[in-house]
Amino acid sequence: MLLTCAHCGYKWDYRGECEYYATCPRCRYKVKIPEDKIEQLRTERGVGGMVGGMLEKRPVKLLGVAGVVNRVVEEYQYEKSKLIQILLKLQRNFGWLSKEMLIEVSKQLNVPLNQVYHVATFYKAFSLVPRGRHLIRVCMGTSCKVRGAPLLLDRTKSLLGIEEDETSPDGRFTLTTVNCLGCCAIGPIISVDGDYYEHVRVEDVKRILSKYQ
C-alpha cells in the first residue's frame, strides 16, 4: 500500500502491522493511514501475515530520543489534545525536556514546534534544562509571603549559592518558587521532592536541606 509522508513527501510501500499509523522510513514522521486504505491494508495482508506472497515487513523501529518519545506518544494514541500529558510523562521519566525531545514530540504529533515550546515554557512543571536530584519549591503565595517566605528564599539561595530556577553546582538541588502550595494555614511552606515543611523559620532551612543527599 503506497503512503506519502506529510512531513518530507517521501513515498513508500507500507506493509507494516499497525492499521492506524505508519512511520516514515526517511524522517521517522508518524503518518496517519487514511480510513479508505485501512481495509486495503487488511486485504493485502492475506492469510498468515503474507503480503503479495512475501513475508510482511515490520514497521521501522525508532531508536534513541525518537524511540523514547514514540513510546509515550503511542501510549496516548498520537492524540494532539494529549500534548500536556505527554510532556508531563516525559518530564516525570527524565526530569527535564531536551530540545531533541520537543522536536520529536512536534514531529510525531504533527503539532507546530512553537506550540510545543509554548506549552513547555508556560507551565512551571516543565524544565528545559537538567534538574538536580532534589527539587526545592518555596511557596510565595500571599499568606506565606507575609509570614517570611522571601527570607526563606534568600536563605536557601545563600546556602546553595544559586538563584531561583538554577541548579546547585554539585547537581544536588534545583530551586524554584510557586504561587501557592495550597497550605496557607501552615505557612510559610517549603517543599522538597513533595515533602512539605510547615511554619518554616530561617534557621530551619539548613537542617531541612541536610536531609537530602
Extract low-pLDDT stretches: 47-58
Task: Please name the CATH topology of the largest domain.
Answer: Glutaredoxin
The largest sheet has its strands arranged as 8-7-9-10
The end-to-end distance, rounded to whole angstroms, is 56 Å
Give the count of helical stretches: 8
Structural write-up:
- The structure is a single chain.
- 22% of the residues are buried.
- Helix 2 packs across helix 4 (99-109), helix 3 (83-94) packs antiparallel against helix 4 and helix 4 crosses helix 5 (113-122).
- The chain has a four-stranded mixed beta sheet with strand order 8-7-9-10, with helices on one face. The chain has a two-stranded antiparallel ribbon with strand order 1-2.
- The chain folds into three domains: 2-55, no CATH class; 64-122, no CATH class; 134-209, Glutaredoxin (3-Layer(aba) Sandwich).
- With 213 residues, the protein is α+β, with helices and mostly antiparallel strands.
- The longest helix has 12 residues, at 64-75.
- It has helices at residues 35-45, 64-75, 83-94, 99-109, 113-122, 142-146, 149-160, 205-209; strands at residues 2-4, 11-13, 21-23, 30-32, 50-51, 54-55, 134-139, 173-178, 190-192, 195-197.
